[in-house]
From TrEMBL:
InterPro entries: UPF0047_YjbQ-like, YjbQ-like_sf. It comes from the Bacteria. Gene3D superfamilies: YjbQ-like. It holds the Pfam family YjbQ. This is Secondary thiamine-phosphate synthase enzyme YjbQ. Belongs to the UPF0047 family.
Length: 140
């Protein structure tokens, strides 16, 4: 079994849902040598998250942003954690709902994603800054 790990920093992205599949694949080219395995992508932040969903139609990503903004609104007077801005506490909640990592099977040196699937960086802050990821792949 081989294990590979790489840390990368994604440049700052605007608030929303962004496809990052290509950036992940380029960051760990050793995946091409894995016949059968797993890749975990982990984000080292509490106000951004990762998920896997539609990779073709950009309106899906816009609808994700619309839905989460409705489901977890800003400026709720009941939030106690409010000193980092009105988007901070909602960002923490959204990140917890979506999660901090995704797992992708590797088959014949490639991600075994479905034809319409891609990895999203879910940026929940207006100015979240660069985001750090740890990518770990293992297999035979």
């Amino acid at each position: 079994m081989n294990i590979f790990q790489q840390s990368i920093q994604l440049r700052e992205k605007r608030r929303g849902f962004h496809l990052i599949t290509g950036e992940i694949m380029r960051a760990l080219p050793q995946i091409s040598g894995i016949n059968s395995g797993i890749c975990q992508v982990f984000i080292q932040h509490t106000s951004a998250s990762l998920t896997i969903n539609e990779n073709a139609d950009p309106t899906v990503r816009k609808d994700f942003e619309m839905y989460f903004n409705k489901a977890v609104p800003e400026n709720d007077p009941d939030y106690q954690h409010d000193y980092e801005g009105s988007d901070d506490m909602p960002a923490h909640l959204k990140a917890s709902l979506l999660g901090s990592s995704v797992m992708i099977p590797i088959r014949n040196g490639k991600f075994a994603l479905g034809i319409w699937q891609g990895i999203y960086l879910c940026e929940h802050r207006d100015q979240g800054g660069p985001r750090n990821l740890v990518i770990t792949a293992w297999g035979n």
